[in-house]
Amino acid sequence: MSFDWAGFLLVAASLERGEGDETLRAAQCRSAISRAYYAAFCTARDHLSRSRGHDHTRQRGVHEYVRRQFQGLRNDRPEYQLVAAYLRRLQVARAEADYNAAWEADLGDAARTAIEDCRRVLRALDATRP
Known about the structure:
This protein has 130 residues and is mainly α.
């Protein structure tokens, strides 16, 4: 059975709605951001492989590779420009959530934004299907 990466978006939304003390909420929101990124990234990576014939998607530097491929395909489909832009924004948010202990912004807002950005990526990719 092949995993549907959009399942990570369901996990992200569940984490974002979670309840608990400040420490638990911070962990939930940070995890939601990360899962939203991976839902978008893995779906986009697999889209390149299935729909565009890319077979180098498991190489080192794959995150940048995938984003650049969508950037390069922007003239083929306007949706691909959106995919590239939102993947970049999600990747930056994911790195902040995973590595930056001192988060200055509202984590709940950041998690909701990441979830919506992921939905935008998934919709854009869905719009490119024949």
